[in-house]
Known about the structure:
The chain has 599 residues and is α+β, with helices and mostly antiparallel strands. 40% of the residues lie in helices and 14% in strands. It is built from 24 helices and 18 strands. Strand 2 and strand 3 form a beta hairpin. Helix 7 (138-148) crosses helix 9 and helix 13 (279-288) packs antiparallel against helix 14. It binds a DNA duplex (12 and 8 nucleotides) through residues 43-44, 47-48, 51-53, 66-69, 85, 91-92, 94, 118-122, 252-258, 293, 295-296, 318-326, 328-332, 369, 371, 393-397, 434, 436, 502-505. Residues 493-522, 576-599 are annotated as: Disordered.
Amino acid sequence: MSHTSKATERARCVVHVDLDCFYVQVERKMNPELLKVPCAVVQYNKFQGGGIIALSYEAKARGVRRSMRGNDARVVCPDIRLVTVPTANEKADLTRYRNAGSSVFEVCARHSDLCERTSIDEAYLDITLQARTLLSNMDEFKRRLRLSGVMIGTESNLADSDEFEKEIFWKDSLQPENNDTQDSLLAAGSVIVAEIRAAVKDKTGYTLSAGISHNKMLSKLVSGKNKPNKQTVLSSTKVEKLLSRLPLRDLNGFGGKLGDKLIDKCSIKYVGDLKKYSLMKLAKMAIGSEIVRINSATWMSQACRGICTETVKSRIAAKSISCGKTFRGPTRLRSIDNVKEYIDKLSIELAERLQNAKQKHRQVAKLITVSYHTGSKTVKRKGQEINLTGNISKSRSCRCPATPNAVNISKAVMQVLEKELDSECIRAGVTCLYIGASKLENVRDEATGIDTLLKKVVSASTATSESDSHLYIQKPKQAAKRRTGIEQMFTRPLTPYEPNKKPNRSLQAATRVSNDGGDIQQKEETKPTIHNLFFRAKSKSTKSNSSIRIQNQLTWNQVDQTVFRELPSELQKEVMSSIRSEMPQQATRRKRFKWSQKP
DNA sequence: CATTATGACGCT
DNA sequence: AGCGTCAT
């Protein structure tokens, strides 16, 4: 199976961390009365007691479920405490939870090699190197193992699990003494995770659950197996068995339409069943019956064997910021003014959060997007009024204003929206409004956009000399913080922000799929993907179009005059020369005098 | 009238 | 650029 030395060398220790009923924990920290009693967090308690978006384990045990109405929860659990999400600008405001999450993942980031925040209350960690280091010193490992309280090679707290699960998780599954197995890496990782969880609890008061395995998919799969406040390890030796009986929809990525199609049309019950479809067959399914998308085939053939090569990135800040509100039934918006009223409100929140992103993460947005849903239209057919379901959703984007305050954001959004909201939309009513900021770029200056401009200037000019290097955004130097005692041994400084590479599930490396289901080692040989197996010719012809992107050159209308004025004269020259080279002289000259008008 | 708000990312 | 899918 997978216990080759090669597999062990390359095996990673990847962790999925998941805050337990997080909104409830946040509310409980603010109001300890809520501790130990069934309680739930709802938003908008006016209608039927509000919608439940988080619930305590006491409430869950009483049959309360997420998405229930507060009133329905009271039926099954009369003594439930309902807490309402704060409201600002006439909408639910999740700031409190976002910030609480940040505090948690800052701790995680400090204590792990890599921390990738994936939502308000979840993150992946890669602690491979830390685990290896710990393994290299057995005495140290044993000492910290004792301190951590982690049990290795024994059955742990699996009261709620069935026999099948008990066999898979923990029971005799880890042999830390054996340096050659992937299990010892996970054993060391388990100790480190326990320490991280203790640090989070200590610094923030919050508890979390974690899954520990060799890749993102597997760690996520098991992180919730022992909630709350427990960690679960999944050995590579148990993966094949686990997947063979795992309902397909329970695996990340198969919970939606794709999973439904595979279940309905291919009579696949368990993840392991997918193994009987070779890569070829999956591809043919994609081509012939449109059950799967062609580019999903490679990913699927790996996933069903427990393989997931996606790396853990280093990022705790969001890549986009958005806020929105739905307007159901009679509250749907039926006039432009009404829409503007709410765009104004949403803009206030977005502006605040953008300011926060700038202060906290040095992020500056380049793009604003507005999207809306418009209600189902009623159409007359054969004299009958027929209600066409399926709401229409639209989105438009525009450049983010240089000073993204609420007024400017609202102005920019309304400008694109007014063209869109025709009488048709207004008659049907707007049922949903979202605005968001994306293309967040990392800057170090106070002056908004100046680094971006410099980057553009430099990339537009051909040569990149060493002397230019100071123009680029520097990764923050890792502060050599002094730590003492045990903490020193497993903590790391915060990792700097790194923009992600664009991932592609199928066309990435890692395509070879072995037949031994337990093998979760990374495959790095680049083999033909489904795509070029079947579309070699096509992919060649499209390559020049899609995969090779020429960077946009700087044009006058991209240059903000206030930004330009701040540049050293030497750079002003550079900017001008870079622009002159691509524009007709006349146009350039004319614009130079008029360029106070921005696009 | 009622599963909200918010992310990430793939496809075209 | 805009739309669709998946997740919680």
